[in-house]
């Protein structure tokens, strides 16, 4: 579905991001994954190459909060491959701090990585995609961007901003054949959720109409569809993958 496409995936060393990288590689893409540290990037690359040595995958660990560093890394990828077809903005941090304990620094930290860092990748990528005649930008939103959460207001606020960014850029970049969409996962079986005790997990399942926790591959499948030609007329969408829990 993505044969010979070149993709950049931020937050690609574990969880949903890693599942997206693997799914893209399985479908013929060449992938550059971004991680927060060299150690985690190297570990992810060893794991992926162990599954299939023929996959064309590499990694980098730029500071996503530094616009100049991110832009230079993206330019290097463009020089190597000649084009970049897909950008997946998956890196982010969650937060559950009660409002009484919030500081402006904590709020800014969440917004910096979950919103500003996305723009740091999008700005140089848009220039490349315009020059090559099109591309696909995908953002990771969240179920809580739609329904909120009991505490940690910065996280749903940041993901609501991601939704607004997605809708607006889809309208602005459509004339350049650049599609912009987002995936909004629900509760997903990542390392953080897997570490929860059974007596916490079971009530969660009962709140989900499909009666199960989502898997990272469920989310990756949505990212695959939106990046593929099957979604060639889909843009400006926030695709919920949450088992209908938001309702």
Description of the structure:
The chain has 247 residues and is an alpha/beta fold. The chain is built from nine helices and seven strands. A seven-stranded parallel sheet has the order 3-2-1-4-5-6-7, sandwiched between helices. Strand 4 (86-89), helix 4 (104-132) and strand 5 form a beta-alpha-beta unit. Helix 3 runs parallel beside helix 4 and helix 4 runs parallel beside helix 6. It starts with 5 loop residues before the first strand and ends in a 6-residue tail after the last strand. The model has no long low-confidence stretch (mean pLDDT 94).
In short:
The chain has 247 residues and is of the alpha/beta class.
Blueprint of the fold:
Blueprint (H helix, E strand, L loop, with lengths): L5 E5 L4 H12 L3 E5 L3 H14 L5 E4 L6 H15 L4 E4 L14 H29 L2 E6 L3 H4 L6 H20 L4 E8 L5 H4 L3 H10 L8 H12 L10 E4 L6
